[in-house]
Amino acid sequence: MKIGVIGPGAIGCLFGALLSRAGHEVWVLDHRPERAQLLDRQGMVGHDPGGRAWRAQVRATAEAAQIGPVPLALLCVKSAAVAEALADARSMLGDKTLVVALQNGLGHHPILDAALPLWALGITSQGANLSGPGHLIRGGQGPTLLGFISPAPDWARTRLAETAAMLSQAGLPAELSPDIRAAAWNKLIVNAGINALTALEDCSNGEVLERPAALELMAGAVREAARVARQSGVAVKADPLEMTLAVCRATAANWSSMWQDVRSGRPTEVAAINGEVVRRGQELGIATPVNELLLARVLALRA
Ligand code: KPL
Which fold has domain 181-300? Predict the structure, then answer.
């Protein structure tokens, strides 16, 4: 299948590289023309946890018109860049393009609704870091859940099922979720507990477990996020704090995406994660002081 990957960040490179190695025609849209040229020439270079290096050929461009309409577009930019990325990608999005959005958080969903007649959500537990453009270091591996938040036509449901099969064949285990909204909230709860703290503490996901003051904040952030989710009618998993601690342990060597954003001077997803807990909490009359604190502190890192 011809697949468009919008954004060559760590997740875009991981999905693009493995889909290309599985035999698909992968086109990467990058808003930075020089980096697009580099990726088009060199492809992606992967480094497995064991140190084994491999290469994947992809096409890359800054001009969506050069790609043209694709049956499947994986939207892999961060939540703050969604609006601009979709505007740039217009020429590759046809009537029958299925866009799968793979951001952390929920705060950008109204932007997706406004820009696209139809989109699917992807919630991934794959970990990856970039050591340079297209240079990928795989981290913790986990499933990718796919689903629609709003009712979708038959062709789109079929395409999403094909996408799950293609990803699984490419080495990225994926399945359709009967309740993707709950999957998104459960991931947001985990991200609310880990991402901001690792950015503020300047530590890996595993190191945060060794810092008692950070763990206390984690417990507060997770408790608030879970309360907001439950009040929103979401089926929250049984023990959200244990779920968050388990992710820290499973991804101990990972540097969270927010840590990476802060270190690279990029906007973070804190507004779509902790900010979304605060916003929904205000709507529901639920106090969220820990998420407010984490939001303010992460925003202050860029001020
Ligand atoms: O999703 C993640 C992220 O970094 O954004 C976690 C689960 C925290 C893994 O690093």
Answer: N-(1-d-carboxylethyl)-l-norvaline Dehydrogenase; domain 2 (1.10.1040)
